[in-house]
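Researcher: Sit down with what I've pasted below and flag anything odd:
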Amino acid sequence: MVDVLPVSGSNNSFNTESSDSKRFSRQLEQYPIGARRWFLLFVVIVSSIVLWYQYYVPTSVATVVLAHFHMTFRYYVYIVVVANVGGVVAALLGGLADKFGRSNIVIFGLLVVGLLQWFYIPNATSQFEFAAGIVAVGLFEGVILVATPALVRDFTPQLGRASAMGFWTLGPVAGVLTSSLVGSHLLGVNSTDWQRAFIISGVAGIGVFIIAILFLKELSPKLRDQLMVSSKDLELIEFKAKGLDVESVTKNAFSQMFKIDILGSAFAISVLLIMYYTASAFFTIYFATVFQRNGVRFSIQQANGIDTWIWATNCVALIVFGVLSDLTKVRKPFMLIGSIGCAITALVLIDYTMKPATGYYTLVLITCVFFSFSGMVYATWMAGFTETVERRNPALVATGLSLWGGILRLIVAISLLLLPIVVSSTNKIVDNQAAQVYVPKALAIESKYGKLIAIVQKDPSLFNKLGSYSNPSQIPPSLLSAGIKAAGGGLTGVGNLVAISKIKPQLQFLQEHQAALLALQQGSQQAPNQWRNWFWVCFGGVILFIPFIFLMKGRWSPAAAKRDAEEHQKNVVAELTKLKTS
């Protein structure tokens, strides 16, 4: 947002906002300038951050919630999928923001989601009640996904768009970061207080709702429905707004937006972001189920710690590359370099996924590099996409964004539905996570008595019969003879049989938890290979994105982009002069 609006635009007789009839209206009849514009953008961005933070709270406490409700991993995934499918419909409805405005959608969403997080979800007493709350939040997020970037676009000329969209994209990214930070501090090794995470997010949401209802405004349709390349267009736009026919320029909205450059670009960024969906929804589970040291997995606190590094790095990248894009006046080179960087780093992550003993900070480095490149792509793509929509019709930005939001949610739903199928080991590990506390003891028993355990496992029914006799003298001779033979025969067999009788409590412990421990073991063995396969899907999404860059509006060369801006300014001056003298 490097393009600051000049104060000279304030002397416009078209301004009626100060009149009594407009005192409580949310519509601005004159473009906001200076500190007021920055404040309005600040309110939009903070609203976006808190809403996305609320959306990602379940991710940060997922393993604890699953245990609390005795919920299978697959059931949890279905909740997320249904929430995103509902978000598809909600996002398409968000296109109505072109006709009915943006600010009321954001304000109402903040209120409803805040109440759901503060009161309803923490008091859920069943899997269904919890699921209903999460799906409801997903529905409102789908609409807000359209309204907030539309507001950012309205308040930002094209030449400052990438940095503005970089700040807007802090919403989903800072939302994940905040949920990870809160989760890592609230949930220690043995903590199960998942309700507090929702309550805190609900209180934060209501606080931002109060700010939004007091201060959030939006441009009138006649102002926002025009194209603003730079702040120097302000006088012309306000002059032309007096005679703009809003109804005619917004007629047949969706048919105007059903174009390959818009639909193709929306699909492309959606598949590139498959890694982002995976990270935001399942990286806590990925780190806690794939990587371990000496048989001990990463705790949820450690997994949230890696997530914190990832999203903090991504936040910085979004801002830095957004500003650089605005300074150079190009988007496409950043998208291309960023997507190639994502592809290369995804290959590195695929390799290290097959190395479960990989250290904490090695994982931090790999994932942070990936999401730095991802930030480079996303901030510049958001700017480029809104500019591509404006090339078709600047009055239908929210409609174009609603198509993007609908496609995005649909791809999210499909990818999250497929992930448990591809990574089926996660079901075994997460569903038997309660047995994780027994793993150290089981490993110690197997390490110390491995030879004796192996003997018992060859014929469990025989040794169960032998163990049923509390007094060895009462064991039938034939049964005793069979036991000595199975234990090695002769004196060795006798010695092993005596030793086995002395570790009866240890054997009973292993037997009681055998099914869960076996599932954990199988899941641990299968997880790296299955996650590697899924990351190949993520890699494919990045590769699919690259060709669609060439369909979008914008120059590759900064010099050419600069010439375009200069030519545009000449045309603005000429058109304004003509309108004033006519």
Notes: Residues 156 and 164 are 7 Å apart (CA to CA). Confidence is low (pLDDT under 50) at residues 1-24, 227-246.
